[in-house]
Amino acid sequence: MQMINGPVRFVYYLNKLQVLLNKAAQQKNPALWLYKNDARTPLFMLEALCKLYSKIHNKNKFTKLKDQFKLLEDTIGAIDYYDNIAKDVSTINKIPAEVTSYLLSQTREKIQSLNEILVEKKWISPDNSRIKKIQGKLNEADWLHEKEEIKAINEFYGEAIYDITEFIQTDAFHFDNIETDIHELRRKLRWLSIYPQALLGCIQFSKNKTTPKHLAKYLTKEITGSVFNKMPDACDNRYFLLLEQNYFYSLSWMIAALGKIKDKGLHAIAVKEAVLQTTKSTEADAAKKAYSLLGNKQPKIEELLKEASSICKVYFGEQNLENLVVGISSVK
Q1: Same domain as 113, residue 39
Q2: What is the value of pTM for the model shown?
Q3: What residues form DSSP beta bridges with 305?
Q4: Would you give the DSSP letter of residue 206?
Q5: Which structural domain, as residue segments, surrounds residue 313?
Q6: Digit-coded pLDDT (tens) for 29-87
């Protein structure tokens, strides 16, 4: 008899989230505690599951659930953004105190926003009402049996890859904006690497006998040895979607490379924002001031966009994404 695995995946990550929420409820500052204790990871997994299942069945139901998880995850992400940049720039002697103070004030503001969301949306409540409501919605879903579901996941991956190649072709490798171009492309690529973790073992690696020479540059020790690039145990799954291991590593390399470029760009953008908010500078003057404060090691946005365009042109020209999915396998 075929199993239905969908609900188990949600329960696994909902339980992880509930444990964190229960502990956060005992803290003076629940939002800060959740941020420091990586509540973002189970939220990412739940968001990934919702993105996937909204394409497979019950679109409206899973889209609404995704929006609930995304609101929390985005707010934690905003805390992370200002907090980490504040820490980074505080070590630079030329950065004036008012810039650091502004970034820290934004961090506190985002923490307060998350605290308000936790209460208003009843994520933190004596009867765990938010999680219970979500579990009730999941019980109403039209879950597929394992064999049919893995076929749907296979189609979902194909559509996601097509969406990314369409996105990159639209810009013709000419990027104009860190957030809407580089950050958005990285987000789309990153979901492809998050789904295997969220799906708890029904996606596994397959490895070709020979590795195309062009992939060698992506197979660094940092990538191949990363714990994030190991598939979850197969557990009780009997049907699998197979991804080619080295092409998955190349995907991981791209995500990491774009992440480094994005972070460099966001440092300049955040300091520019701080200058604008703490002085009477124009946009142009604030940008110049930001580069002056960050020093010679800070690359210009134009340079970062050009670098991202260059590596994307190579990566997508090699059709690495198109070779990522091997197909479906099963065990008797």
Answers
A1: yes
A2: 0.95
A3: none
A4: E
A5: 146-330
A6: 999 999 999 999 999 999 999 999 999 999 999 999 999 999 999 999 999 999 999 99
